[in-house]
Amino acid sequence: MGLKNWALLLADLVLPAECAGCGESRSRSALPGLCTLCALSLSGPPLPAGPPKPAEGVPPVHALAAYLDPVPEIIIAQKEHGRLDLARPLGVELARAAEAAAAGADPFWLVPVPSTHAATVRRGQDPMLRMARVAAARLRASGRAVAVLPALTHRRKVADQVGLGRRERSENLDGALAVRASSARLLPERPVVLLDDVMTSGATLAEAARALRAAGSAPVGAAVLAAARLSTRLS
């Protein structure tokens, strides 16, 4: 038995048996932790994303999928339900969107949108930071000079965005993020690509971009796993 087959056998033994997307028995697919059909939902080419009138200040965004079933279940499983086995396959896919968002920049920073301290404690992880590190490793393996810079931090509490309208989302996040002092001197050394899991109104990415611009480093683009609205035009 070859090394690849041994690795697949080991994965079958130690990873959850259910697909994170549909809950059915997991079959081997290109994305561990997902069945073949659910894996396909994230395997398309990165597309420009965003609502017709995104929040002011949002950089150009590329997404891998529309935020439709089974994508929400996959993201929530990794984010809230302890499916840490999904960080690697999702990070590998996110790398493709990040490369598109970089628009030819090389080298560049990957700057993930941070979880709040309370969310990190509750989850026992920062999902975006974990996926960002996988994405950076994937891009470096392909010859790109990429590194993760966890430059952003929350400087005040924010309400849960679920259920808030466009204006309420923007007001909730206004001034919520700042650049860490330890990262401020490093940011100008490379272009920046923001990373997040989902884009709806764009309020979160707009606030992250505002904080970076205030530190003298406007992001060249942003990459997300899924967006509420996708373009049908290939980038």
TrEMBL record:
Residues 173-229 form the Phosphoribosyltransferase domain. This is ComF family protein. InterPro entries: ComF/GntX_DNA_util-trans, PRTase-like, PRTase_dom. Belongs to the ComF/GntX family.
